[in-house]
Amino acid sequence: MTTLTTSTDTTSTDTTSTDTTWTDWATLRDNVSGRLVTREDPEYADARLGWIVNVDQRPAAILEVAHVGDVVEAVGFARDRGLAVSAQPGGHAARTTVDDTLLLRTRALGGIEIDRARGTATVGAGVKWGELCAALDGTGLMALVGSNPDVTVVGLALGGGVSWFTRAHGFTANSVVAFDVVTACGELEHVTRASDPDLFWALRGGGGDFAIVVRVELALFPAPEMHGGQLFWPVEHAPAVLRAFRDLALVAPRELTLWAHVMHFPPMPELPEPIRGQSFVTVAATYLGSKQLFDALLWSLRDAAPVVMDSMRPIQPSEVGDVAQEPVDPMPSMEHSMLLTGFDDAAIDALLAVVGTPGATPLMMTQVRGLGGAFADDNPAGGAVRPVSEPFQLMSVGVPAVPELAAVIPHAFAALDAALGGVASGYRMPNFAGAAQSDAGGYDADRLARLRALKIDRDPDGVIRSNKPVLGR
Ligand SMILES: Cc1cc2nc3c(=O)[nH]c(=O)nc-3n(C[C@H](O)[C@H](O)[C@H](O)COP(=O)(O)OP(=O)(O)OC[C@H]3O[C@@H](n4cnc5c(N)ncnc54)[C@H](O)[C@@H]3O)c2cc1C
């Protein structure tokens, strides 16, 4: 078995063997309860793909684990044969870095326990945010959920977690109280700050490279009243709306979160009539507080140009996943992100020159998230996630529905890099690194060095492999 060393971000270090035999797989199949699909099985063609269906990932085999015992068995099996294991519940961050691994589908690791007295939720590694948020309805409590209800709680938290409520309460990763994991040695461990400070630190933002998580306990936050929704304008108003968004985002209280979008909807029959084939600039918002204050805070946005759709309303936890109206079904997607040190008028105009004209860009959605607030707080008790002082994040998505689009979308990403190079910090949030972008950009040098040293210490044989390996790909 090859021993891991540090490398540059683009140099392969892991040469784990893939010559697992038919007899080996038969042994594993006999020892687990979940379904095992190998390259020889007809189901492999579908089972190998993730939520991002255009990622051509080719694991050695896929195990749909039925319970924690299957995870322990799989890690031991892989370790004994020089294979790597990779957890991928659904594949929202599918990557070819999981090629030749034993891929663990962890969706069956369910269970949601809300402890109102302690103010925590404990969920299995297969639980999606939409499922946890639905369980929080009526409790007056909220977790640090992101934009999409289909993403898993564990997957988002391991990568730091940019929540609707990070401005108020910090990163999702730093809300984690405890993990239950299977280590690279195949041991089941309960990991807390007290039990294993280094591993606890790494799991909170360092990604899925350090252990297979089977369960997580998260802190909850009081949210007796929440509002949210989205304002739509025709895309022609983007220059005025993005300026109003920028001005408000920079002074907003921590309870208010604003994300602006430039959207070009394709003329697909499955889209509702008001948006089908249309282009919009939108601002999605959430607010932890009353309707009166929310309306007062939004006046400058509603005043920027005539609003054509307005879905701002009181929301329950189960509705937070609807605010940004993101897709939940598997789809082709290519993503690109950057953190911005500012979003001045020149940057807004440069952005719109690339993505603002209908029919002139292959990018379907470009989002600018207002950050600030607790994003920038240097939390000494926090994990590997880097405090983010940049006030905005840009994320752009192209949908390569046909091969021709897959060829041109990277050129549009390069045009964005060129247009916004003057305000890009060079960092990005780990969860938002596009497949063609460097994952190392998620961390500062000290954090990356600590993550890499811990990986070599705890998993020298590379038994656990994240989709974004800290030692590089
Ligand atoms: C539409 C969309 C919206 C998004 N919105 C947000 C957002 O608002 N905020 C945000 O922070 N991120 C967001 N993301 C990014 C998302 O959080 C990451 O892609 C995350 O890794 C997805 O986790 P998953 O488990 O759903 O996906 P998967 O692709 O199944 O898993 C991603 C990776 O997480 C790790 N992992 C998952 N489960 C385990 C486990 N049990 N043990 C060890 N490692 C594990 C593995 O490395 C795995 O490869 C979004 C992504 C999409 C596609």
TrEMBL record:
<keyword id="KW-0274">FAD</keyword>
<feature type="domain" description="FAD-binding PCMH-type">
    <location>
        <begin position="55"/>
        <end position="223"/>
    </location>
</feature>
<dbReference type="InterPro" id="IPR006094">
    <property type="entry name" value="Oxid_FAD_bind_N"/>
</dbReference>
<dbReference type="InterPro" id="IPR016169">
    <property type="entry name" value="FAD-bd_PCMH_sub2"/>
</dbReference>
<dbReference type="InterPro" id="IPR050416">
    <property type="entry name" value="FAD-linked_Oxidoreductase"/>
</dbReference>
<dbReference type="Pfam" id="PF01565">
    <property type="entry name" value="FAD_binding_4"/>
</dbReference>
<dbReference type="InterPro" id="IPR016167">
    <property type="entry name" value="FAD-bd_PCMH_sub1"/>
</dbReference>
<protein>
    <submittedName>
        <fullName>FAD-binding oxidoreductase</fullName>
    </submittedName>
</protein>
<keyword id="KW-0285">Flavoprotein</keyword>
<keyword id="KW-0560">Oxidoreductase</keyword>
<dbReference type="InterPro" id="IPR016166">
    <property type="entry name" value="FAD-bd_PCMH"/>
</dbReference>
<dbReference type="InterPro" id="IPR036318">
    <property type="entry name" value="FAD-bd_PCMH-like_sf"/>
</dbReference>
<comment type="similarity">
    <text>Belongs to the oxygen-dependent FAD-linked oxidoreductase family.</text>
</comment>
